[in-house]
Amino acid sequence: MSLARRCGERGTDKGRCGWRWPKTATALKALAGKPRAARTAASACLVLLLTLAGAGCGARPDLRIGAQTFTETKILAEMYKALIEQKTGLDVKVIPDLAASPLVFSALDRGDIDLATLYSGEIFNNHFPLESLTKDRAEVLRQAQEGFDRYYGFDWMDPLGFENTYAFTVRRQVAEARGYRSISDIKPDAASMRFGVDTSWLERASDGYPAFRQEYGISFAKAYPMELSLVYTAVKNEQVDIVLAYSTDARLKAFDLQTLQDDRHFFPPYDASPVMRKEMEALHPGVKEALRPLIGAIDAETMIGLNYQVDIEKKSEREVALAYLKQKGLIPK
Amino acid sequence: MSAGLSFFEFLGERLPDLLLALREHLTLSLIAVLIGSAISLPLGVLLVYSRIGWLNSAVFFLANLLQTIPSLALLAILIPLMGIGARPAVLALLLYSIMPVLRNTYEGFRSVDPHVLEAARGLGYSAAQRLLRVQLPLAVPYIMSGIRLTTVYVISWATLATLVGAGGLGQLIVSGMGVNQPYLIVAGALGAIALALAADLLLGWLESALGRRFGLRGGAAA
Amino acid sequence: MTFADFADYFWRNRGLMGEYFLQHVQMVAAGVGLALLAGVPLGILCMRGRWTARLVLAVTGILQVVPSLAMLVLLMLWMGLGNATVMAGLFLYSLNPIVRNTYVGLQQVSGSLIDAARGVGMSRWQQLWRVRVPLALPYMMTGLRVAAVIAIGVATIAPLVGGDGLGREVYAGINGQNSLRIYSGALPAALLAIVADIGLGALQRRLDPAAARSRRPRAGGGASGKDGADAAVPPVPKAQG
Lengths: 333, 222, 241
Known about the structure:
Chain A has 333 residues and is an alpha/beta fold. Chain A has helices at residues 3-8, 14-17, 21-31, 34-58, 71-88, 101-110, 137-152, 172-178, 209-216, 231-236, 251-254, 278-283, 286-291, 300-311, 317-327, and strands spanning 63-68, 92-98, 115-119, 154-156, 166-171, 194-198, 222-226, 242-246, 257-259, 272-277.
């Protein structure tokens, strides 16, 4: 059956060819010009997609820096990035918002990231067998540096100069009225206190709630587990009476809160250090050198101030990091 | 083999947590679908009778727009307005659930042959009777397939609710990631997939049962 | 928070926002582009028989139901942190709309037209490439459009597995209780999805010979079954995540 005959039949023989028949002829006619236009459109789309895709895949950075969900690790990561790019010309990328420190360790271990900020007290999280359980600041740091070198091949650099540990925290007003200065001071009132805390602390092995109860003999009336970022508002708004905070969080200052001294030295020291895969250090020897100006240069006061700019003044981590480095003359203005 | 075994041991050990997450997940999804349908069903019927052309276009345009917004974006946009927890999650999910049910209700009611309606009028049916006794039964399979589609996707989306603090199976995935516990991740993920597929099967069965009951083929509009 | 605060924050960080935006588009383009490369041949493969079609559509359909968080995190266990994981996820999500629409598009070409093509002596390949595929293009465009919108949505949760994009700001905003950042990420992402939907929709209508001649009724969202390629798409929710 020839095309001509089919076309000639159009409209006259609906019964045999089905109701779509009138459409067919027009469509077939349209086809004469259609394939080219269609192919052009389709290939244009494809080329565009693949170019973009290629650009996306091709740009693999030389170095990747991991950061956790809380502000200071992100600010520090942006500082590392700026310094390394400035001094070595490497292409550096920050991967922020990693859910928690175990994820950071496993990402470092498998090489998904090369550099991150970590805290010395981490050694109590069962990464490797410890020589001693002492909580002496220098000793914990030494064990972290030697252990992670030996078991994981990480270079745990010297501390940046501040500690970010857990801190029991109350409203300043309450602390002054009741004379709370250290954790032991709250013992008489603990049985009537509502306690707001980050979920994971309740389950931590060596420095979690069960161990705390044993060490201090303090049990709160009720524990309210919540996101870490919510505890500050909760205690400020008197939804709870005491919370477990991070000692460098800017909201301690902004919300007029008072941290209590850990008089029995229950919490291990948490000195912050840049940690890098040694494999990467061998590959890019300039990186460690680029970070050196930060080592021992950031005290707790400074870190809280930088966190303040992000958490309270709502600047971005990159803005704050760059402004700090410029102010210190570490990168050109 | 031993890995598989220990996964099941793990499941047994954490069963209470898993069941709690499952319950939260189901509650979130069901509330969202129920409220969503309670809004979109009457709205769909209303649009069928609406004489205002642009109103239909506007409503469908808006419902379509809502569906286009990335779910994390929608959830996140609601946080500053509603805080954290189950409420913003339910609201976001129910906004998503509107479109499929609305569209299928509309199509279902419009699919009724005008001759049938004419005949019903001839038999002395009032407008309300025509709506409830002629059109509604004929539209049921369409509506059901809209509800089924919505439910499956809402269950899938509810996994993200954990990011705004509403719990559910997504919570297992996120905490599994935080504590580096792959079993927890797998349990949460498989739980959500299984729940979505189970809902699909169950509602599919209900849909074809209703289709038979009302003398139509099932899944008319899916 | 006022609008001025938001505008101020956004403007001060416009470089960063531009970076995130570009990364977002790149991830989506990579995922959807790969899905197009794999999905169109799969759609053609579906023409081989009913069982092939059922199998392929069932598998891609189940992939579609997997919660995006679960999909990305499971892929992360296997592929590690980073953009590659995200792109793999976007690829898997984009398969179903593209395969399904390609298949439906190829199928709807009327038998008499194929008869005619055979009549003028076209080989099977020619029938496919010169008749079926051009006529299926509007349907494929619909698939591409649905896939793109879904991918833009899923890509917002990329930061959870170490990926880039606008989700960075959203996620950082959620973690830091900062609504400025939530909006800085969420609004451009929503806008991107809406623009992609409308833009690709317009492109699809231009490719559709039936729609080019007669303006379609808008109400009913194109599900009335009569109008061109929209009818091929089941009313699957477009935003996935």
